Amino acid sequence: MRNDQGISRRAALAGGAAIAGAALVPFGGGSALASVSAAAPRRRPLRVLVATNEPWGTYHVSPLLDEAARRGWSLTQLVPDMSQIKPGDPVKVATPDQVTRADLLVVNGASDWPVACAERFRHLPLAASSLAYLNPEEVPGARKLRRRLRVITASSAAEARSFAAYLGTGTRRTIAVVGSAQTDALPVRKPEPGLVLVLTSVTHPDPTGGAAPGTELLLAAADKLHAAGRHILVGLHPREDRKLWEKYEISAVPSIQASARAEAAIGIPGTVFPLVAAVGTPVVGCIGPALTVPGYLLSVCSSTIRDAGQAVPAIEQAHLPSADVLKDAVGPVGGSAHRLMDAWSLAVRSHGHHGHH
């Protein structure tokens, strides 16, 4: 793989040290807040409820479990019912009716389910944390949440801009840029010659959430790469149909870990794209005609393709984005779950709240 800028992962992210040390970064207007770590002395363990745009999508919460356990916190994802929860899922789940006491409700968006949960638990302090990409267009439910939000967090400056537009806060609110918990233990990159990681999205919508277009293009691109002698390793989205990809090796570990083995990655742009680039693996985007994603997910791509015939040369020429683009899209690396939960602590303290229903 070419790397025209000669940027290693460490060099590219070294520029992030400044924001890595600043646990809260002002976005738009508003005064800078003190370091979360300094501002959040240890209190009793918190009981945190989480409601996501994908109601049963526990994969948004699972990267936070280690830090929650370290603090002795209880993290519970609110679900409409247990119909889509797999046996043995490590994330604790509950329906709203099963919750008796809590200290904080965190929403990761403003679709029907998070808004319904916010209305149900209207006496709880409320935080909004972007745990997956959202398009930078205000959604109707945002107006029901904005005035109640004690803290807003995003993983990166680019994600913060998108989240601000989604929530309709514009430049009026400070957004804490905390990084992504998925980068708290980035793997050491050891690319295997000829190996390409294919990053899927979701082909078929289900009760948990929608789908992204482009699977046919990505399948055709994978076939072209395989025919050209590449070894294909598939990083499945947690909700993707496994049967579509079974002719290739499917990674047994999460895509971020799998990307350390790859010379390059190709896929439908999604939340994982900046994180794979943070590992040091260049990414190529497959863009179906109906795909709509925030610009920062495209900015980390070495290139984008709209025809499967472009896949082989795109992978051959794949390179990392500039250090500035990477820092903007990835955010601070290391200690992200810690910063996120310190921000949540502030939300509880600023509310003067203590364990109401």
CATH architecture heading of the largest domain: 3-Layer(aba) Sandwich
Return the CATH class of the largest domain.
Answer: Alpha Beta
Low-confidence stretches: 1-12, 14-40
Q: What order do the strands of the largest sheet run in, or round the barrel if closed?
A: 3-2-1-4-5-6-7
Distance between the termini: 54 Å
Q: Whole-number average pLDDT?
A: 86
| Strand residues, percent | 15-25%
Element-level helix/strand string: HHHEHEEEHEEHEEHEEHEHEHEHHH
What is the oligomer described by this structure? single chain
Q: What count of domains describes the coordinates?
A: 2
Number of strands: 13
How many helices? 13
Morphology: globular
Helix content: 25-40%
Describe the structure concisely for a colleague.
With 357 residues, the chain is α/β, with parallel strands linked by helices.
